[in-house]
Amino acid sequence: MHPLQIKLLGIPGWAIFLFLWALALFLFIRKVAEILKEISQGEKEVRWDNLGERICGVVVYVLGQKRLFKEPLAGTLHCIFFWGFIFLNLGVVFDFMEGLFPGIGVVKNTIFFSYWISLIDIVCLLVGVGVIISLIRRYIIRIPRLERNWEAFIILTLIFLIVATDICINGARIVLGEMPRPAFAPGAMIAAVLMDSPLFPKDLLQPALVGFWWLHLTVILCFLVYLPYSKHSHIFMAAFDIFFKKQTPLGQMTCIDIEKAEKFGALGLKDLSWKDLFDLYSCSFCGRCQDKCPAFNTDKPLSPKKIIDSLKKHLKAHKGTNVIEESISSDEIWSCTSCSACMETCPTFIEQMTKIQALKRGQVLMEGKNPPEASQMFKNLENNSNPWGIGSSTRGDWAKDLNLKNALAGEPFEYLYWVGCSGSFDKRNQKVVKAVVKLLQAAGVDFAILGESEGCCGDAARRTGNEYLFQMLAQTNIEIFKTAGVKKIICSCPHGFNTFKNEYPQLGGEYEVIHISELLVDLIKAGNLTFQPSGDQKITYHDSCFLGRYNEIYRSPREIIRLATQKAPLEMKRHHSDGFCCGGGGGRMWLEENLGTRINEARTKEAMASGAEIFAVACPLCLTMFEDGLKSLSAEEKYRVMDVVEILAEKVETPQASPAKEPENA
User: Same domain, yes or no, for 365 and 384?
Assistant: First the structure.
């Protein structure tokens, strides 16, 4: 007889069952309603657009667990837990239905049931082994990113009890003849053998079955009730968070309507969006973001995981409006390089960096608080449209002897070559810019520059929280582009590339934007650019965060190195989407780095460990940070830092006189 058909203290089992389920659901729903009420305090934000893409995201990242397999063991364990629970819940539903409606038990006499029990048994064993491995990783091996707290221990213990009692229930049913022996169920068969042995009294078999069944039910209900009260609320919220994930480009910050906005950025949690607050309950605190964070890995106070945890505690405690004063230090948010490694690696698409950026905006625009170097940078940008404050009239001096077209001179051109602040004023990066010009001329590309009319793209201002200054710079550039008739823009700086491609459209600036590395590969393939491949030196390539992670351009810089030297570059330990920041992004290029160790030194050491002699980059900020890193490590005599453009320009032949062919995809 099914346990639900047996009376306990004179009360039918099914009545107790329904009461316990109703109580558990009440407690669960009450807590979830409380969480949703807290989340609803956030600002409105549209996250219901692009439904097709959102559903596909759930399929790929929830059902397929795609991001988790970046760490094979952890991904496998999580996949076992995820799919294990899906099958176990199906089994639980069937068992409960059998108890409430006994006639459904006829299914037990089919071959399907035998295979189903075999599948459930194997799943239980896998989940049980997974729990043991997880406990060892967390509490014995003590993997740094995994917290050793009671919440994790309770959840893992409950999971183990669920699968253990399921195995014992099936073992008892086999011995009592209530279930045919399954085709292959090692767990249940071992339990059956033990219960059928002389050591286990026969008259206790039926009570044992009933006891295991009610224990199984109790653990399931405890698990359900405990979830929303613990950090493991992500188990039921993560799928929704993935559905609501950011659909705009990773390299695009939110745009504030300066004229209509009543507040700029965030001081308190109510200034963040509802999705930002939803993230706080979807985070599993797995620490993957922390492992990838360049600030955390160089002993800065910033940990993306801690940021989320601090915001969640702030929300639950209903503290005052100023998060920075009460829960997060200013050193934490100003340590961020905007590399977005945290968002790239998070399995549930938590948007840690957007919260940091909102807090920076709040500090700068509403509180007037920012590092003193940032204040000087803002002043320089306002007065001379470059972070150094060098006279804007000298911006085009690097090109005085090159006889280049000026986009405002009225002469037609196809591309505007955007030089950028570093290329215009930094002597080392001027060499890169001249190499770009040499290659474009050699390929017969019709381009022009703006000279002294060029201004800062505004990236550094926006990522250090000064949205007002960014929009002022951007609108000025957009008007100049309109006057010059700019349609296509070539960038050799990933920061300008990302800003024009992903952020100027927010303000009405729509252009075809191409990074120089992509254009050069197309020109080579079209036969417009010829050179003699050569080179015996070993080269490694560093992925710029704004080129690689933000815009997924990983292949073309490596392809330039391969074509120019006939050798693929060596890879550092961390590369492609897993690459480590140089430390210059997020406006950090112009801020002092006084906390912990220097990020550029950490990355430079990693480049040195690759066995390369030349460190190749595709970003002016990365070039500067690497050269500074070599100097601080007293290694500038042994290694060279070169832009991929320079590597190719050294091998290019004399410019061709014949008309240029149309490059592929240019």
Answer: no
Residue whose pair of structure tokens reads 């625009």 in the numeric block? 365
Cα–Cα dist 618/622, whole Å: 8
User: Which neighbouring-strand residues pair with 501?
Assistant: none
Confidence band of 666 (pLDDT split at 50, 70, 90): very low
Number of domains in the chain: 3
> Would residue 176 count as lying in a domain?
yes
Structure confidence at residue 190 as a pLDDT band (50, 70, 90): very high
Q: How far apart are CA 495 and CA 72, in angstroms?
A: 33
Which of 603, 569, 570 shows the shortest CA–CA distance to 584?
603
Q: What does residue 628 show for φ and ψ, rounded to 5 degrees?
A: -65, -35
Give the global pTM. Answer: 0.89
Do 410 and 501 fall within a single domain? yes
135 falls within a domain: yes
Q: Are residues 530 and 572 in the same domain?
A: yes
What is the DSSP code (8-state) at residue 451? G
Q: Any idea what DSSP says for residue 527?
A: T
Dihedral in degrees, nearest 10, Cα atoms 653, 657, 660, 666: 40
Q: Is residue 660 very low, low, confident or very high in pLDDT (cuts 50, 70, 90)?
A: very low
Spatial distance between the Cα atoms of 124 and 107, rounded to a whole number of angstroms = 21
Cα separation, 406 vs 384, whole angstroms? 20
**Amino acid at residue number 646:** E
Q: Say if CB 623 and CB 494 are below 8 A apart.
A: no
> 161 phi and psi, to 5 degrees?
-65, -35
d(CA 159, CA 592): 48
Kindly state whether residues 432 and 308 are assigned to the same domain: no
**CB-count burial class (<10 Å; 0-12, 13-18, 19+) for 523:** buried
Q: Are residues 317 and 462 in the same domain?
A: no
Distance CA 285, CA 290 (A): 9
Which domain range does residue 187 map to?
71-229
Check whether residue 275 and residue 217 sit in a common domain.
no
Give which of 296, 256, 225 is closest to 21, Cα–Cα.
Answer: 225
Do 352 and 387 belong together in one domain? Answer: no
And the tokens for 436? 């770009």
The predicted structure's pLDDT at residue 656: 47
Residue among 312, 306, 311 nearest 290 (CA): 306
- Looking at residue 200, its pLDDT comes to 85
Burial 289-324 (b: 16+ CB within 10 A, else e): bbbbbbbbbbebbbbbbbbbbbbbebbeeeeeeebb
In whole angstroms, give the CA distance from residue 325 to residue 267. 9
pLDDT digits (tens, 9 = 90+) for 523-577: 999 999 988 888 788 999 999 999 999 999 999 999 999 999 999 999 999 999 9
**Same domain for 276 and 220:** no
Distances (CA, A) of 416 to 357, 435, 445, 485, 528: 30, 16, 11, 9, 19
Torsion over CA: 46, 47, 53, 55 (sign) = negative
Count the helices and strands in the chain (H runs, E runs): 26, 9
Tokens of 259: 């004229």
3-class DSSP string for 250-283 = CCCCCCCCCCCCCCCCCCCHHHCEHHHHHHHHHC
Model confidence over 375-419: pLDDT tens digits? 999 999 999 999 999 999 999 999 999 999 999 998 999 999 999
- Name the average pLDDT for the chain: 91
- 494-504 residue pLDDT tens: 999 999 999 99
DSSP 140: I
Looking at 304, 337, 369, the residue that finishes a domain is 369
Say if residue 626's pLDDT is above 90.
yes
C-alpha–C-alpha distance, residues 13 and 25, integer Å: 18
Q: Please count the residues of the chain.
A: 666
